[in-house]
Amino acid sequence: MSDTAAGLLQAGFLILCLAAVYRPLGGYMARTYESGKDLRVERGMYKLFGVDARADQTWAVYGRSLIAFSAASLVLLFLLQRLQHWLPLSLGLPSVPNGIAFNTAASFVTNTNWQSYSPEATMGHLVQFAGLAVQNFVSAAVGMTVVIALIRGFTRSKTDRVGNFWVDLTRTLLRILLPMAVIGGLALVAMGVVQNFSGGHEVTSVVGQTQTIPGGPVASQEVIKELGTNGGGFYNANSAHPFENPNGLSNLFEIFLLLVIPVCITRTFGLMVKDKRQGYAILGVMGTLWAAFTFAATFFENRGAGTATQAAGAAMEGKETRFGEWASALFASSTTGTSTGAVNSAHDSFTPLGGGTALFHMMLGEVTPGGTGSGLYGMLVLAILAVFVAGLMVGRTPEYLQKKITAREMKLVSLYILTTPTIVLAGASIAMGLASARASIFNTDSPHGFSEVLYAFTSAGNNNGSAFGGLSANTPFFNTALGLAMLLGRFVPILFVLALAGSLAKQQPVPVTQGTLPTHKALFVTLLVGTVLIVTGLTYFPALTLGPLAEGL
């Protein structure tokens, strides 16, 4: 079988698997958030922590609860790393230095999972599973609570309440993420992913040298790494490491895991707003853009210029030969479109335009289909912008899901859209202006050096976590600057989304008339695709011309 046929079969089988679980999983998540009943274990937790499960919160209280929970998580994860040398299962490793500890805590709490260190040489087993893996669960759950609050903003009227953060968080963890992680973790173990508490395995390399590769609870962290669109690996090689991703089947399963919730939550949205067509429309936009970027990445990696590339038949530098260029491009497109950041190949070794495709994909705002929850609320914000543009064209007040889009909503949408580009472009500009930061660039004599810096801040600001490995980011400047970019890029937009939810919830639904733009048809899908691309292109095109476009052309 040719590589092309095998690659097409992989992509087709992946889409079939996602289609098979779309209705049942999307419906299950909708029932989870709309249910008026609490499980016994949930009632016990509410009683223990003093939570009134029947008390809905305003968007401001909801936001304060979320920020307080995340701040406590940040402090606890930081302390866990700093105290590692006193903890059991540390494997004799010292405490994590302050700079890395802050950066890592910010990274995992914000669902970014940027790693400027070698995990197996820096973190013991306890920090890995009690610190990093736990944050993989709760940071994913936080993103899902936000989009549920926004959906309630569309479905409720004449109220200032958008739900209860603690109830949404608990249900997301206990009813959705944990059961799926248990099943997925067992599947990964069956496929060969390591799961133990071993201090190391002696192996002999192809040149006859021996080395010790640490074992550990890899499968349990790997499953939520993908399922929660986190991306932080147990090993420095991430999903290119055979202990994390041993074969082609596990590779395809991991891609499925990182896409399944962002894809299926569009059905949850359609069911909760009582119009399944709205969910299909949003899914259509996400799917169209994901397919386009997957095709572009695959094309550039298969048709890369250069003598060595043509002799090998494709751009194989930095690729795992177990997977090849098709599976590597599929993984790269899926991970940069879902805020996952996991990699099964070295993105820094992609062709200039192939790497630029991954970079541009992140710049869309991680909405194709985006992270758990964050992808959908990002796309809904862009949908509001699209109906506003359409309203300007026909000269009437824009409406979306029977809610008027007034000046207040558009101010919040504008602030949301401007936040991440400001963080990314300002951060990259400051880094390029400081000699100490420029010293971290490996490729100082080509546009690729700028691409490495731009990729780092794009990854941090959009809470992705993947990287161009040529940048030595474990420095005081980058640990601090990227940590702040991750925190601001996560929580400032979340507060704007929650404020938008509260504003929409106060409105009374307006009736649908002949002048109302149908937001479930192909015309709106096309408009929204164009909005996503144009807004992103106008914002980032000058920076892209200095990096991947200059290098590739």
From TrEMBL:
It is a multi-pass membrane protein. The keyword Thylakoid does not apply. It is found in: Cell membrane. The chain crosses the membrane at residues 59-80, 87-109, 129-151, 172-194, 252-273, 280-300, 376-394, 415-437, 481-501, 522-543. InterPro entries: KdpA. Keywords: Cell membrane, Ion transport, Membrane, Potassium, Potassium transport, Transmembrane, Transmembrane helix, Transport. It comes from the Bacteria. The keyword Isomerase does not apply. Its main location: membrane. PANTHER family: POTASSIUM-TRANSPORTING ATPASE A CHAIN, POTASSIUM-TRANSPORTING ATPASE POTASSIUM-BINDING SUBUNIT. Part of the high-affinity ATP-driven potassium transport (or Kdp) system, which catalyzes the hydrolysis of ATP coupled with the electrogenic transport of potassium into the cytoplasm. This subunit binds the extracellular potassium ions and delivers the ions to the membrane domain of KdpB through an intramembrane tunnel. The system is composed of three essential subunits: KdpA, KdpB and KdpC. This is Potassium-transporting ATPase potassium-binding subunit. It comes from Kribbella hippodromi.
